[in-house]
Amino acid sequence: MLLSASLLRKTLFVLFVLALLSVPFFIRSDYLLTVLIAALFGAYICVCWNLVAGYTGLFSLGHQAFLGLGAYTSTILYVKYKITPWMGMFAGGMIAAVFAASITFICYRYRVKGMFFAVATLAFGFLLQALFMTWDYVNASTGIWLTLQNKPADFFFMARVPYYWIISVLLVISLLVTYYLERSRLGYYMVAIREDEDVAESLGVNSSQCKVIVMALSAFLTALGGTFYAQFYLYISPACVLSIEPLISMQVGALVGGSGTLFGPVIGWAFFSFLGEFLRGLPLGGTAVGVISRIIWGLSLLIVIIFLPTGMIGLGRKLISLLPFRHQKIATQEIGSGISPSHFTKNEKKED
Amino acid sequence: MLLLELTKLSRSFGGLQAVKEVDLQINQDEIFGLIGPNGSGKTTIFNLISGALQLTGGSIKFKEEEITNLKPHQICKRGIGRTFQIARPFADVSVYRNVMIGALNHASNVSEAAHITDEVLSVANLFNKKDVNGKNLTIPERRRLELARSLATKPQLLMLDEPMAGLNPTEIEEMSELLRHIRKMGITIFIIEHVLQAIMSLSDRIAVLNYGEKIAEGTPEEIGANHKVVEAYLGEEYFIAGS
């Protein structure tokens, strides 16, 4: 075989990074850059969610809370205490990580697993949203506005390009973390926990420790995304960053693209961003676009859950293995065969 | 040398006493068999030793250290491996990665674990299946994977829960050979099995459970001749054939 699976992945990775970094040299339109930034942001949170749900089988439905914690922490620190969001970003990440670790540990302690873990995290998300809706210190449901200004030291830029670089770097970091984890002890353990926690434990895997670490890591990364969101859109409120919207984006992106795979979430989210922009270009009117894209989201989730549990990546691998000059090897060497259909129909049904 | 010592091991589920004050001693390099009718508490004993269940009474010592009520992963780290009655391979993961996960228990890094994995895969005769996903294996392959995975954790004591269930006579013979080979590697085996012919020829000593109580213990010959055991488990036929 000329091209091994791991070499292929490395090549793809490098090509992807090169393509990503070369974009601002070709694209000058603010509109296109804005669309791309939003798409990369979506892909980034999909990758973060994929770490817990796709690889570890922890079906977190509370990840929007970590996004919100990140956004609120850095914004409050900036607005009230004049601490630059560059620092606030990491403070937010730490806070989100502490919350994530605590929830995961409490769930482990009281043997809350599988679907019940999903519901527990969902409850946490709602709880936090309700709290922020009524908490005057954070401007309750009104939310917080930031003023557009030219202050790179405080994470404000007049141009789009710097934002593009920042979110690209975040996305590449999250992919590198995933890539490195796949090959590490923790990565092996994460997959073992997803497949069968009791067996994993009997093979020496400290599942509570692994789950806590992965959740904290994923929450930390998600919260960094939250700060980016606040600095880019300049407005946060419980109805946007703490709502279920970003969570649904994470899920459709990761599941449709291929959960438990490196590039699945990116490919999945690229598909949905493209679709959204395409629909917006049609003469349909604002409400119709929202409705139609929702319908397509729901349908594609259903199709993937029923027919294609390994997502677009799985489909791609199947097609590649059918090519005459390749052996089947590429399909089997990867670990990312995603969450099994039973796993996520069990957990996902209520989302549709 | 004494490896595993169970003292007055007890476990009850509500009003049901599944294991009643069982005393057992397993020596190094032994193959120790555990037999008994369905529901007599054999698997419960395995679950108690491996930490999957908590004891309600008694204690467990491994290499003269108290290991009572430790967590399963701690027990594994101490050197006790186990397999499950129904083979539970990681379904969506290749055979290679299945075994790697076990191998990481003992290895200090991933490349050392890869080395252990290669070794174990060839011992268990699964090397040519290493890229196949767990769910696509046949029953005997699953049994061997189950064994390989816990063998990769480098245990001193390997507890096998019916490793021959669902195998045909040729496969049973192969599995027996494999177990003898594992014993030669210096690993003590504690085995639950219903395939009597195999366990009688493999084991150095056998204990018999009935209703959670140990009713007999001894060499296979002594067990085959024991009236209590014949009554509770083996049946008249075995007695006549044996005598």
Q: What this model shows, in words?
A:
The complex is a heterodimer of chains A (352) and B (243). Chain A is mainly alpha-helical. Chain A has a single domain (5-351), classed as ABC transporter involved in vitamin B12 uptake, BtuC. Helices cover 73% and strands 1% of the residues of chain A. Chain A is built from 15 helices and two strands. Chain A has helices spanning 5-26, 30-55, 63-81, 85-109, 114-134, 161-182, 185-195, 197-202, 207-233, 245-257, 264-281, 286-307, 311-322, 329-333, 341-348, and strands at residues 144-145, 235-236. Chain A has a two-stranded antiparallel ribbon. In chain A, α2 (30-55) crosses α10 and α6 packs antiparallel against α9 (207-233). Chain A is globular. Residues 328-352 of chain A have low confidence and may be disordered. Chain B has two domains: 2-79 and 156-242, P-loop containing nucleotide triphosphate hydrolases (Rossmann fold); 95-154. In chain B, α3 runs parallel beside α5 (139-151) and α9 crosses α10. In chain B, the strands form two sheets. A six-stranded mixed sheet of chain B has the order 6-7-8-3-9-10, sandwiched between helices. Chain B has helices at residues 42-50, 72-78, 95-103, 110-123, 139-151, 169-184, 196-202, 220-224, 227-234, 236-242, and strands at residues 2-13, 16-27, 31-35, 57-62, 65-66, 80-82, 157-161, 188-192, 205-210, 213-218. Chain B is built from ten helices and ten strands. Helix content of chain B is 39%, strand content 26%. The model of chain B has no long low-confidence stretch (mean pLDDT 89). Chains A and B meet through α7, α8 and α14 of A and α2 and α3 of B.
